[in-house]
Amino acid sequence: MEKPSPEAAEIKFPNLRNPRETLHWFWEEADFKILLPAIPMAIFVILNWQTSEWIAILGSFIATAIAFYLNKQNGVIRMLTVMGFAIVTISAVVGMLMNNAKAYVSESITTDLMHVIIFTTSIIVRKPLVGLIAREALPLVRNTLPVMHKIFVSLTATFIAINLLTAIARIFLLENVTATTYVLINTPASFIISGLYLATSGYLIVRAAKKENTSV
Known about the structure:
The protein is an all-alpha fold.
């Protein structure tokens, strides 16, 4: 198993019992560009409300391409962004050719299923993706927690379960409402679920890192 770096002893973590200090630490340390891909869905809703489905799909795709360009990550985060962009591109082309917005917004379902497959594989090959992503998004964690730390395995398994459940829920929702209604329900729900997961994961990872740091 990979050992924490000797540099871990020099790392300063926040007092997790102090919400203000904790939020400030995450604001300073985390790379929030990974949230950029959420913007295109808002553009889709506005354009689909004011114009046609074709224009809404095109506008949302252009916004996705811009977000993809601005999100200049490396490593695992970049890989997932590239795969997500490929799914959006294919969905946009199919949606415009069919003039069917549902074909476009269904990319969220495809992304969920892609995550289930990739994250499950990462556990099998002993490289849980939550660990790899956390070590990229929070550099200080990289020097403290080995990638196969139990917190990363547990959070990766949790992420798989969440994506499987949301994929099922989204399939049911898309079959019963319009594309615009789907996005209006799906987008805030996704923000809430993702926000809770990220906040909880961040807290647990930092707590585990602090505990590991005290033992170095």
